[in-house]
């Protein structure tokens, strides 16, 4: 059962206001750094150091087997050409050996990133529990996941993800938890029972902000979003 204090897990009250601050920002002129909160690849140095160290070679983009990385365009000022993850389109699947890190020649993606404990991309939060299919007791519909199933797939890893999404059609939704790529996914996200038969995703302290939960959510509105460059304590205020 969920009490009033626990509701912070689901993006309500003060959490929503806090996240609004993190998600603020706007594009400045081409002579300045992008002020948008950007989801960087695993192992990215602190933003200022990352921008000073990244040589914009694109090697990390080239080796990503899930095509999760893109390069920023000219609208992002001197951040132009640096890699980021757009979790609305494709999250980071936390590949074994972190090929993006291994491919980085400058160390902008720290080569000390070898285990999940070294990854600190950001933190997920449930922005709209009222739009969550699990909370509403609705099943996954084919049309809701069609884009993810039928997009261009380049390799077996991508096809495996598409198959798992396709298998969810007609079943109660738990895609965000089922596809979490964390080596111990229950440390990062879990479906929890609320009042009655309602369920909802609960973000846990092991979350590293990879963005897969945001990518695979089939709801018509964005239920889960990622706040880049923050940790669990900072976002959730020490809640367990």
From TrEMBL:
Gene3D superfamilies: 3.30.70.20. The keyword Transmembrane applies. The keyword Transit peptide does not apply. PANTHER family: POLYFERREDOXIN PROTEIN FWDF, PTHR43193. Coiled coil: none annotated. Keywords: Iron, Iron-sulfur, Membrane, Metal-binding, Transmembrane, Transmembrane helix. This is IRON-SULFUR PROTEIN. InterPro entries: 4Fe4S_Fe-S-bd (IPR017896), 4Fe4S_Fe_S_CS (IPR017900), Polyferredoxin-like_ET (IPR052977). One of its GO terms (molecular function) is metal ion binding. Pfam families: Fer4_4, Fer4_7. The chain crosses the membrane at residues 7-32. PROSITE patterns: 4FE4S_FER_1, 4FE4S_FER_2. It comes from Wolinella succinogenes (strain ATCC 29543 / DSM 1740 / CCUG 13145 / JCM 31913 / LMG 7466 / NCTC 11488 / FDC 602W). Residues 43-74, 81-114, 199-229 form the 4Fe-4S ferredoxin-type domain. It comes from the Bacteria. The gene is NAPG.
